Amino acid sequence: QVQLVESGGGLVQAGGSLRLSCAASGIVFSLHQMGWYRQAPGKQRELVANIARSGSTNYADSVKGRFTISRDNAKKMVYLQMNSLKPEDTAVYYCQSRSFDTYWGRGTQVTVSS
What we know:
Elements: E1 3-7, E2 10-13, E3 18-25, E4 33-39, E5 46-51, E6 57-59, E7 67-72, E8 77-82, E9 91-98, E10 102-104, E11 108-113
């Protein structure tokens, strides 16, 4: 059974930081591309960042320079360090794992207040 479990979301003031974590089980983690997506109220889900098996990363323009994605293959974990948070970052953040199949976590709420 594949399972992705996000944690680390919460309420933070603008300019603050949060670190999201995603714990994976039921997959050969090192063979999967991992990513973070987010969905704000009334908007479509969008890519925030992803990280390939090689460690190569990709970021949405809106978060580049503020967010950092990383992975720990030994622990089967992927992280999203979020700095200089803005109210427009408010969304539910979802962990994604992709190989032949694509899997999603349940999401964790991030709320950034003015």
